[in-house]
Structures are given as structure tokens and as C-alpha cells.
Amino acid sequence: MKDLLAMDGLSIAVIVIVAVLMAVLLAELIALVVISNKKDKKGGDEVATDEPAPEEPITEESASEEESVGEEPAEEPAVAPQPDIAIAAATVPPFGDANRMSRSFMAKLIQCGGLMQERYGAVKNELLSYNKVKSRLGWSGEAFRRGRATVAKLAIRGKTLVICLAIDPATLEGTKYRYKDVGEVKKFAAVPCMVKLKSPRSVKYAIELIGQIMDREGAIKGEQQNVSYAMAYEDDEKLIRRELIKV
Fold first, then answer.
1. pLDDT, tens digit, for every residue of 124-150?
2. How far apart are the C-alpha atoms of 206 and 247, rounded to whole Å?
3. How far apart are alpha carbons 72 and 58 in whole angstroms?
4. Plot region of 109 (φ>0 → left; ψ -120 to 50 → alpha; else → beta)
5. Contact call for residues 197 and 161 (beta carbons, < 8 A)
């Protein structure tokens, strides 16, 4: 009986030891499985990061943002540059255009250059050399009177200086003088004979005709005037400020 109990005790001890060993082995096996699963999961996560992320649903707001980025902005209508006053001087509409700036006689004279100013001075000095002759500057020209009678008018037509004289054009037919009859124009009715001052010879002829008028009027020539009427060029902006050009 004692031997049996001893054997049973030994068997139990062996069984316990085997059970402990199996438990240890099982625990190690479980640990290995857990570690292996963690590695597999980690590797799976790393691979998953290489895959594209799922697309978010496109809302109305995001769609409008994509359209604004993807599409080029519509071109704005081109706005024509407005010329400044200095540029407008070089692009003035032709004479007679209702939209052109209204230039006074003095403005034209200032911008015409020295040659025209010299011819203007020669004729004006001749007229003012006679007694009782006075000049009056107007918007469209300069009038010369002796008493109440207008004897001459200076004006600029296009780019040409002209003088209108109190002479009947019919009396100059067949002569050396070149003229134009402008008597039908109301403002030139008293001075119907227009002579263009385009050369030294035309200035000389105009002075001769002035002498004929003064002889007819009984005017006496005094000391010859020799005033310089040379004027420095001024652009449109300055002349507008001086009210010599109306816009």
C-alpha cells in the first residue's frame, strides 16, 4: 500500500512537472504567435500607406473650388488707353471736324513755328506803322481798324497764315497778285480779298496791297514798327490752362 501511494505520489509529481513544462511551452508558443501577428499587422499597415487614400465625396463647395482652379479666368474686355492732353496735340482731327478742340488764333500762332510768326510780325508791323491803325485780337483772328473801318484781318486757315484786305478782288484781276475772293463769307464781307502768306514774296505783295489801301484811306505812314512777335512753343495742356484752347 505504501509502495502504491509512493508510486502515485511520484506519478502526480511527474504529471505536475509535465503540465508545468507544457504550460511554459504553450506560453512561449502563444508569445511567438502574438509577436508574429504584430509583425504581420505592422507590415500590412506599411503597405497600406502606399495605397491611395479614399477620395472624399465632392460637395458643391469643393466642386466650385475645383472649377475655379482648373479653369482659366475669363479675359476682361480690353479698355482703350485714353490719350492725355500732350498726345492729343499730335492727333487733332482735321480742320472742320465738329469734335476737334477749338483753338484760338493765338494758340495756333504759338504752335505754328518761327517762320509763320516772322511773317505775321512783318505784316502786323507794316499795318501798325500807319497812323490811327489799331489792332484787336479775337478768337478766330486779329482785326486791324482805322477809325471805324476794318482795313485788314489776319487769320490761320489750316496751317497757312492769311490776310484778308479791304480791296475789291475784281480790281486785282490780271495782276501779279494771287488772291481769293471770300466776300460771300459774312465775317469777311468788309475784307473780301484773301492773300496767303506762304513765302517772302507773298508777304512783300501783301505789304504792297496794304500800301494801296492806306493811300486810298489817306493814312500817313509813321515810323516803321519793328516789334518781334516770336513766341516759344507751348503744348495743348498749357494753352488750355491759359484758355487759348477750348475742349
1. 999 999 999 999 999 999 999 999 999
2. 34
3. 21
4. alpha
5. yes
pTM over 0.90: no
Report which of 135, 145, 146 is spatially closest to residue 105, judged by C-alpha positions: 135
To which H or E segment does residue 86 belong? helix 85-88
Query: Under DSSP, is residue 193 helix (H, G, I), strand (E, B) or coil?
Result: strand
Number of H helices and E strands in the chain, helices first, is: 7, 8
Amino acid code (one letter) for 170:
A
- Are β-strands 149-157 and 142-146 bridged in parallel, bridged antiparallel, or unpaired? antiparallel
| DSSP run (H or E) holding 136 | strand 133-137
Distances (CA, A) of 166 to 62, 129, 169, 232: 87, 17, 9, 31
Can you name the residues that pair with 196 across neighbouring β-strands? 162
Instruction: Give pLDDT < 50 ranges for the chain.
Output: 4-5, 43-98
Residue in the structure block whose three cell numbers are 490761320: 156
In degrees and rounded to multiples of 5, residue 152 shows phi and psi of -165, 155
The three grid cell numbers given for residue 222, joined into one nine-digit string:
509813321
| Distance from C-alpha of 234 to C-alpha of 224, rounded to nearest angstrom | 30
